[in-house]
Task: inverse folding
């Protein structure tokens, strides 16, 4: 009798356990502990936008982030001036991310720029400055309060396809938004990626700050010593690609290039950050050897090198520099983007800047976010399908936020309809984007 009772109890336990297991109709079901409509990989600007837009569109959403903080380059590399939400004095990017940015600015007791005075050749004045610590905290709070499940300190290294979507270890998702910046997940799923040749690939930047305010020194002598240090191999020409005296007077910050910066793998990321810190230490040692600068101190430095360019996914469409600058608006355009072509080169002191003609604004199409040959997945952010020139503009934070929001809505609607993102009604996508406050590109719109 005891044996019969024990068997009954065991069977009951098995039935209850199976009943609580998410159904995925695959042999992998036993290892899946959480199933979602949308899984976003990457917690930078595109990933934040995608996750917020998806959950606001009714999708059960998870965001997987490799670091312990939300924010991506804004936080880890301290690229804290976010642009651009306005074009020609008119707002072009709004919605959940814009609300988040405004809240972060307010909680840091800062203020927004006066966009009514926006001028194209003064683009930095229209960027929104955020405190990276405040921004990261507000972003995480916003995501959690919206209902997004955050999976932190997790690097995605494999992905499996099943009948209903994708599996990442113990997490399953019907639709995926790859916001890694490197199209990492898309590549794991079989998508093709491209990378610019080494001789034109944009360098990264490493931000660090020094205590030089009020210090007197001979600028000409310092600049001469810098040239000598580069000539004899003591410094690399990229260690400070602006005038050394100018770099010192402004207290550091931007100005240090890291050639071939790459964060697409843990190994590449570690090597890039190592080279960034070595450049910082070389520069600081040089400065302290100069007369009058012996007591300059290192005040702070970013956690990581800011990476501008690695891989771009090969999408159903590719945004070209010419289309971007010409304000081409395809039928599936879902997001505006307004930043100049901004191509940095490791061997040059300044970037190649090509501005939009008056009244023109770039766009991002759905097709550019769809990896060719891979279903149930979108790629948003820096890795969007684009050529080298267009990518140098599309990589900035506000543009990534906008395309993230667009991708999140498309993914949510595809999950709800159990279809591929290619099959979702564009009219429905635009309607839902408008409902969450996103500004959808419209043909015939005139910017003054």
Result:
């Amino acid at each position: 009798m005891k044996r019969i009772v024990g068997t009954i109890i065991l069977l009951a336990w098995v039935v209850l356990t199976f009943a609580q297991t998410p159904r995925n109709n695959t042999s992998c079901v036993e290892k899946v502990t959480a199933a979602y409509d949308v899984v976003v990989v990457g917690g930078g600007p595109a990933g934040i936008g995608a996750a917020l837009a998806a959950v606001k569109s009714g999708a059960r959403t998870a965001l997987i982030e490799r670091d312990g903080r939300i924010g991506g380059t804004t936080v880890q590399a301290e690229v804290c001036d976010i642009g651009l939400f306005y074009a020609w004095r008119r707002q072009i990017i709004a919605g959940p991310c814009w609300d988040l940015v405004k809240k972060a600015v307010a909680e840091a007791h800062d203020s927004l720029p006066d966009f009514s005075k926006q001028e194209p050749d003064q683009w930095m004045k229209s960027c929104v400055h955020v405190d990276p610590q405040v921004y990261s905290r507000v972003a995480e709070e916003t995501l959690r309060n919206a209902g997004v499940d955050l999976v932190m300190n997790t690097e995605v290294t494999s992905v499996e396809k099943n009948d209903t979507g994708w599996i990442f270890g113990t997490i399953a998702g019907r639709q995926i938004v790859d916001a890694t910046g490197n199209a990492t997940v898309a590549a794991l799923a079989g998508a093709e990626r491209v990378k610019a040749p080494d001789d034109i690939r944009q360098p990264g930047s490493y931000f660090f700050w020094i205590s030089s305010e009020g210090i007197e020194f001979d600028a000409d002598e310092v600049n001469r010593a810098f040239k000598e240090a580069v000539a004899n191999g003591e410094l690399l020409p990229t260690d400070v690609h602006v005038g050394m005296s100018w770099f010192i007077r402004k207290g550091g910050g931007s100005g240090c290039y890291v050639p071939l910066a790459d964060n697409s793998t843990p190994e590449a990321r570690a090597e890039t950050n190592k080279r960034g810190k070595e450049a910082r230490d070389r520069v600081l040692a040089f400065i302290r050897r100069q007369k009058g600068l012996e007591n300059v101190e290192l005040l702070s430095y970013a956690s990581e090198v800011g990476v501008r360019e690695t891989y771009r996914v090969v999408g159903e469409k590719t945004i070209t520099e010419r289309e971007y600058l010409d304000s081409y608006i395809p039928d599936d355009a879902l997001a505006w983007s307004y930043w100049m072509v901004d191509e940095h080169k490791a061997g040059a002191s300044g970037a190649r800047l090509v501005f939009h003609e008056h009244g023109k604004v770039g766009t991002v199409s759905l097709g550019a976010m769809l990896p060719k040959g891979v279903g149930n997945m979108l790629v948003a952010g820096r890795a969007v399908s684009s050529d080298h020139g267009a990518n140098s503009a599309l990589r900035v934070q506000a543009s990534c936020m906008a395309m993230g929001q667009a991708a999140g809505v498309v993914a949510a609607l595809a999950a709800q309809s159990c279809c591929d993102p290619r099959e979702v009604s564009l009219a429905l996508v635009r309607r839902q984007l408008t409902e969450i406050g996103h500004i959808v590109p419209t043909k015939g719109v005139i910017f003054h």
Summary: The first strand starts at residue 34 and ends at 41.
